[in-house]
Amino acid sequence: MRQFKGRAHHKMDAKGRISLPAKYRTKLAASDLVLVPGMGQCLWLFTEEEYDKLIEPIQHASLYDSAEIDELRDLYISGAEDVEVDSAGRIRISAEQREYAQLDKDVTIAGKGSYLELCDSELYQQKLGKIDKGEARKALSRRSENAN
Questions:
Q1: Which residues are paired to 90 by β-bridges?
Q2: Using 50, 70 and 90 to split pLDDT, how confident is the model at 133?
Q3: Could you report the per-residue pLDDT of 30-67, keeping only the tens digit for each?
Q4: Is-contact 34 83, C-beta < 8 A?
Q5: Which helix (H) or strand (E) holds 26?
Q6: What is the distance between the alpha carbons of residues 74 and 69, in angstroms, rounded to a whole number?
Q7: Count of CA atoms in the C-beta half-sphere (13 A) of 67
Q8: What SS3 class is residue 148?
Q9: Phi-psi region of 82 (alpha: psi -120 to 50; beta: other; left: phi over 0)
Q10: Phi, psi at 91, each rounded to 5°
Protein backbone atom coordinates (compact mmCIF):
# COMPACT_ATOMS: atom_id res chain seq x y z
CA MET A 1 0.00 0.00 0.00
CA ARG A 2 1.39 3.35 -1.02
CA GLN A 3 1.36 5.80 1.86
CA PHE A 4 -0.22 9.20 1.32
CA LYS A 5 1.99 12.02 2.55
CA GLY A 6 2.43 15.73 2.04
CA ARG A 7 -0.10 18.54 1.61
CA ALA A 8 -1.72 20.17 -1.38
CA HIS A 9 -4.01 23.17 -1.63
CA HIS A 10 -6.81 23.06 -4.19
CA LYS A 11 -9.89 25.07 -5.10
CA MET A 12 -13.30 23.44 -5.03
CA ASP A 13 -15.66 24.51 -7.81
CA ALA A 14 -19.31 25.53 -7.45
CA LYS A 15 -20.44 21.93 -8.14
CA GLY A 16 -18.41 20.61 -5.19
CA ARG A 17 -15.67 19.07 -7.33
CA ILE A 18 -12.07 19.12 -6.24
CA SER A 19 -8.96 18.01 -8.06
CA LEU A 20 -6.89 15.34 -6.33
CA PRO A 21 -3.09 15.68 -6.06
CA ALA A 22 -1.58 14.50 -9.34
CA LYS A 23 0.82 12.08 -7.64
CA TYR A 24 -2.13 10.04 -6.32
CA ARG A 25 -4.59 10.24 -9.20
CA THR A 26 -3.54 7.04 -10.95
CA LYS A 27 -3.73 4.96 -7.78
CA LEU A 28 -7.01 6.53 -6.65
CA ALA A 29 -8.60 6.31 -10.11
CA ALA A 30 -7.88 2.57 -10.14
CA SER A 31 -9.59 2.05 -6.75
CA ASP A 32 -13.09 2.25 -5.40
CA LEU A 33 -13.13 5.27 -3.06
CA VAL A 34 -15.10 6.13 0.05
CA LEU A 35 -15.41 9.60 1.57
CA VAL A 36 -16.36 9.73 5.27
CA PRO A 37 -16.74 12.44 7.90
CA GLY A 38 -13.53 12.55 9.91
CA MET A 39 -12.40 14.26 13.07
CA GLY A 40 -12.26 18.01 13.50
CA GLN A 41 -14.66 18.89 10.69
CA CYS A 42 -12.56 17.25 8.02
CA LEU A 43 -13.36 14.49 5.53
CA TRP A 44 -11.35 11.32 5.08
CA LEU A 45 -10.87 9.73 1.65
CA PHE A 46 -10.12 6.02 1.73
CA THR A 47 -9.67 3.34 -0.85
CA GLU A 48 -12.37 0.70 -0.35
CA GLU A 49 -9.71 -1.67 1.02
CA GLU A 50 -8.59 0.78 3.72
CA TYR A 51 -12.17 1.80 4.50
CA ASP A 52 -13.03 -1.85 5.15
CA LYS A 53 -10.21 -1.98 7.72
CA LEU A 54 -11.59 1.15 9.41
CA ILE A 55 -15.12 -0.17 9.81
CA GLU A 56 -14.34 -3.83 10.51
CA PRO A 57 -14.30 -3.50 14.32
CA ILE A 58 -17.46 -1.39 14.21
CA GLN A 59 -19.32 -3.92 12.08
CA HIS A 60 -18.31 -6.85 14.28
CA ALA A 61 -19.38 -5.19 17.52
CA SER A 62 -22.64 -6.35 19.01
CA LEU A 63 -25.73 -4.47 17.95
CA TYR A 64 -26.31 -3.67 21.61
CA ASP A 65 -22.67 -2.99 22.47
CA SER A 66 -22.82 0.70 23.35
CA ALA A 67 -24.05 4.11 22.34
CA GLU A 68 -20.46 4.90 21.33
CA ILE A 69 -20.45 2.07 18.75
CA ASP A 70 -23.76 3.34 17.39
CA GLU A 71 -22.26 6.84 17.04
CA LEU A 72 -19.27 5.39 15.18
CA ARG A 73 -21.66 3.57 12.82
CA ASP A 74 -23.52 6.84 12.22
CA LEU A 75 -20.31 8.65 11.42
CA TYR A 76 -18.32 6.07 9.45
CA ILE A 77 -20.99 3.89 7.86
CA SER A 78 -24.15 5.98 7.52
CA GLY A 79 -22.10 9.09 6.74
CA ALA A 80 -19.92 7.35 4.14
CA GLU A 81 -20.32 8.02 0.42
CA ASP A 82 -18.80 6.25 -2.56
CA VAL A 83 -16.98 8.67 -4.86
CA GLU A 84 -15.38 8.33 -8.27
CA VAL A 85 -12.44 10.09 -9.87
CA ASP A 86 -13.58 11.73 -13.11
CA SER A 87 -11.52 12.06 -16.29
CA ALA A 88 -10.10 15.38 -15.01
CA GLY A 89 -8.84 13.78 -11.76
CA ARG A 90 -11.59 15.28 -9.57
CA ILE A 91 -14.02 13.91 -7.04
CA ARG A 92 -17.41 15.40 -6.25
CA ILE A 93 -18.18 16.11 -2.60
CA SER A 94 -21.87 16.04 -1.69
CA ALA A 95 -23.55 19.11 -0.20
CA GLU A 96 -24.06 17.23 3.09
CA GLN A 97 -20.38 16.41 3.41
CA ARG A 98 -19.32 19.92 2.34
CA GLU A 99 -21.55 21.30 5.09
CA TYR A 100 -20.11 18.91 7.70
CA ALA A 101 -16.54 19.93 6.84
CA GLN A 102 -17.40 23.60 6.23
CA LEU A 103 -15.84 23.36 2.78
CA ASP A 104 -16.36 26.41 0.65
CA LYS A 105 -13.59 26.99 -1.86
CA ASP A 106 -10.05 26.61 -0.49
CA VAL A 107 -9.36 23.01 0.52
CA THR A 108 -6.22 21.45 1.96
CA ILE A 109 -5.64 17.80 1.07
CA ALA A 110 -3.28 16.21 3.58
CA GLY A 111 -1.72 12.77 3.33
CA LYS A 112 -2.35 10.77 6.50
CA GLY A 113 -0.66 7.49 5.65
CA SER A 114 -3.44 5.15 4.58
CA TYR A 115 -5.90 7.91 3.66
CA LEU A 116 -6.24 11.54 2.57
CA GLU A 117 -7.80 14.21 4.76
CA LEU A 118 -9.75 17.06 3.14
CA CYS A 119 -10.23 20.20 5.25
CA ASP A 120 -11.17 23.81 4.80
CA SER A 121 -7.75 25.46 4.38
CA GLU A 122 -8.33 28.09 7.06
CA LEU A 123 -9.54 25.49 9.60
CA TYR A 124 -6.57 23.29 8.72
CA GLN A 125 -4.12 26.12 9.41
CA GLN A 126 -5.79 26.69 12.79
CA LYS A 127 -5.48 22.96 13.51
CA LEU A 128 -1.76 23.03 12.69
CA GLY A 129 -1.28 26.07 14.91
CA LYS A 130 -2.65 24.14 17.90
CA ILE A 131 -0.14 21.30 17.61
CA ASP A 132 2.35 21.22 20.48
CA LYS A 133 5.42 19.99 18.60
CA GLY A 134 7.26 19.07 21.79
CA GLU A 135 4.37 16.90 22.97
CA ALA A 136 4.06 15.36 19.50
CA ARG A 137 7.74 14.37 19.57
CA LYS A 138 7.35 12.84 23.05
CA ALA A 139 4.31 10.85 21.95
CA LEU A 140 6.19 9.57 18.89
CA SER A 141 9.14 8.62 21.08
CA ARG A 142 6.85 6.72 23.50
CA ARG A 143 5.20 4.85 20.61
CA SER A 144 8.64 3.91 19.23
CA GLU A 145 9.72 2.62 22.65
CA ASN A 146 6.53 0.56 23.04
CA ALA A 147 7.01 -0.99 19.58
CA ASN A 148 10.40 -2.35 20.62
A1: 19
A2: low
A3: 889 999 999 888 999 999 999 999 888 887 777 666 77
A4: yes
A5: helix 22-29
A6: 9
A7: 0
A8: coil
A9: beta
A10: -115, 155
DSSP-assigned beta bridge partners for residue 118: 43, 109
Length of the chain: 148
* CB < 8 Å & 24+ apart, contacts of 104-110: 104/12, 105/11, 105/12, 106/9, 106/11, 106/12, 107/9, 107/10, 107/11, 107/12, 107/18, 108/7, 108/8, 108/9, 109/7, 109/8, 109/9, 109/10, 109/18, 109/20, 109/21, 110/6, 110/7
Closest CA to 32 of 12, 50, 19: 50
Measured distance CA(2)–CA(16) in Å, rounded = 27
The answer to whether 34 and 51 are in contact (CB under 8 A) is yes
Question: H or E element: which one contains 104?
Answer: none
> What percentage of residues in the chain have a pLDDT greater than 90?
49
Q: What is the pLDDT of residue 25?
A: 83
What domains are defined for the chain? 7-147 (3.40.1550.20)
Q: What is the pLDDT of residue 144?
A: 63
The terminus-to-terminus CA distance of the chain in angstroms comes to 23
